[in-house]
Design goal:
This protein is of the alpha/beta class. The protein is 37% helix and 23% strand. It has three helices and four strands; from the N terminus they run βαβαβαβ. It has helices at residues 17-29, 42-54, 74-83, and strands spanning 6-11, 34-39, 65-69, 92-96. It has a four-stranded parallel beta sheet, with helices on both faces. β1 (6-11), α1 and β2 form a beta-alpha-beta unit. The chain is globular.
């Protein structure tokens, strides 16, 4: 799957490492610049991506700005992502998971 540089994740079931870590690694491989999590367990998603970015060796070769918005309306989160400045112009991609 192709990912935009700005991802808004709408979580309906929360973060589950066994199910979701590969997805987070795919986002890192896609070199996204912004990850905004909203919905169930938004802070867990944010923390998980931060830890996966750091990696087992602690080198963290790619920085991704992460934010969580557990109680904010989706429209506000999308607006935040649209206005967030990144190194290249990206459309906001909303992913439901």
């Amino acid at each position: 799957m192709h990912y935009s540089g700005k991802i808004v994740l709408v979580s309906t079931s929360g973060y589950v490492p066994e199910r979701d870590d590969q997805f987070l690694r795919d986002l890192i491989a896609a070199r996204i610049e912004l990850f905004c999590a909203t919905g169930v367990g938004a802070e867990d998603w944010e923390d998980a991506l931060d830890w996966v970015c750091v990696g087992d060796d602690g080198r963290g070769e790619h920085l991704i700005v992460t934010t969580s918005h557990e109680r904010e309306p989706l429209a506000k989160v999308i607006e935040f992502a649209e206005q967030f400045s990144t190194s290249a112009q990206h459309k906001v991609q909303v992913i439901h998971r």
